[in-house]
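DM from R.C. (forwarded with permission)

"hey, sorry to bug you on a friday — could you get me a structure for this? deadline for the figure draft is monday and I only need the backbone to look sensible"
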Amino acid sequence: MDIHQKTERIITIIKEHAPLVISYSGGVDSTLLAVLARESVGADQIVCVFIDGAEVPRRAVSTAKTQAESLKLPLVIRQGIPLSYEVQQSNPHDRCKSCKLKTFPILREIGDEFGYKTIADGANASDVEEYRPGIDASSSCGIIHPFIMAGITKEDIRMIAFRMGYAFWNKPSSACLYSRIPYGEEITNEKLRMIEKGEELLQNRGIQQARVRHHGTIARIEVMPDDMETILLHREEISLFFKNLGFSYITLDLQGYRSGSMDEALHFSS
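My reply, with the result:
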């Protein structure tokens, strides 16, 4: 199918399943799903739900609010259920599964409040090709994935948003702060705040697609290749800032930014 056919397909799927509770992060995927739903079935047939928690950067919360308001998306923000002590300590490779299973009851509760039976998220066909245990967990709860159902990839989503004239089409990819900590290493609020503050500094220097991976005393910075020069130009400032956060060593990953880089260790050991 071409992009026009895929767009028609996703709209058909939305109409077939509306009204919808949409798991909304403010990212490109869930935002486009919400916009398509608003335009095809009306804002009174959807509710976007943002689940907040320790794993969510404060900047992401404010951005999601502002974006939903500008796009006229009905938004509800709820506090998430923290990970169990055992999961925080062990940080297993299927941690995302635990998060999704805790998120579902909140989405279901809001659905019951509005009288909406169907819950949808922005998972897409590209996600299926990567390690995403959260998708299976969501599916097991009955959450639907319209983009996957329509065969729409991440690239398709950006193209559709671009053709529709939405500025968020090229918004940098995002992921929860838990994904910056290697599997098997304990998740703590201190680590999450170190990561958040480090990434915020990079964003304030104009580097929007950045990850600060927390490896104990080492900060491994991932940015796009074109942004590496900016890192080097500001290396003294960045090094001092990161050391004040608690890191002893600050490194720049020469492979650059890539989604799910923490999963590479899983593939290497298999």
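R.C.: lifesaver. The chain has 13 helices and seven strands.
me: no worries. The longest strand covers residues 46-52.
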